[in-house]
Design brief:
alpha+beta; Endonuclease I-creI; four-stranded antiparallel sheet; 8 strands
Length: 233
């Protein structure tokens, strides 16, 4: 019987610079929204939803099953669990001011410098919320891409990825079939090292989506001919 995943502790201040808040705001920026007195964030994974609720000290998560159109093929519709939680009060306006997140539909500037020491959980939250992972049978490689309606947000993510080690070059933004934008990692990206960097210490922190982490792990193992469970993420 597998052990229950760790759940992070609530943070005293959602605008402090910690691994927990980096993960939280990465997910909000990628698949959430700010209104004047409300932060809304979504997850398709129950463990990730529980982690987000724990970080924010929220005690209620709404659960539904929703239809999602594929980013790259609008004819494909998938039905997925969706968990949504809301945080009420000052954090919305404070996050808009401090992090440049859009508020009530007004475009933001996306300033994530405060999380410069926590880039892995920040990018992890973003990838889990608005990214795609696939194994390419034709080339035995892993495809990783980020998809969003906001062009500036994706350019900010590309800028962060350009500054990290391991080496993960990215392609230019393209239009998506859903009306937004997307970009993928370059063919020469060190995807196996990126995966290990991205999920380092995630077992201890509890900051991850179970299904997404497992999909990346298995895809990298197939692409690199490593034994199952050998990848340390």
């Amino acid at each position: 019987m597998s052990e229950k995943p760790e759940t992070p502790e609530p943070v005293e201040d959602l605008l402090s610079a910690t691994a927990e808040t980096a993960y939280f705001w990465g997910r909000v920026a990628a698949d959430g929204k700010l209104a004047e007195e409300t932060v809304t964030v979504r997850a398709s994974d129950e463990h990730a939803a529980d982690a987000l609720a724990a970080i924010a000290g929220a005690d209620k998560i709404d659960h539904s099953v929703d239809a999602h159109t594929s980013t790259h093929d609008a004819s494909i519709v998938r039905y997925e669990d969706e968990f949504e939680l809301r945080v009420f009060g000052a954090p919305a306006q404070r996050a808009s001011a401090a992090l440049g997140l859009p508020l009530d539909g007004v475009p933001g500037g996306y300033r994530f410098d405060v999380f410069s020491d926590h880039r892995a959980p920040l990018i992890r939250g973003i990838l889990e919320a608005c990214g795609t992972i696939c194994f390419r049978e034709s080339t035995d490689s892993v495809g990783i891409s980020f998809v969003h309606d906001d062009e500036q947000f994706l350019e900010t993510v590309r800028s962060i990825l350009a500054d990290i080690d391991p080496h993960v070059p990215t392609r230019a933004l393209e239009d998506s079939s859903s009306g937004g934008y997307w970009f993928g990692l370059g063919d020469d990206a060190e995807v196996d090292r990126f995966a290990e960097w991205l999920y380092a210490d995630s077992d201890e922190s509890g900051l991850y989506a179970t299904e997404r982490r497992q999909k990346l792990k298995r895809s990298v193992e197939r692409a690199t001919d490593r034994d199952v469970d050998s990848l340390s993420i």
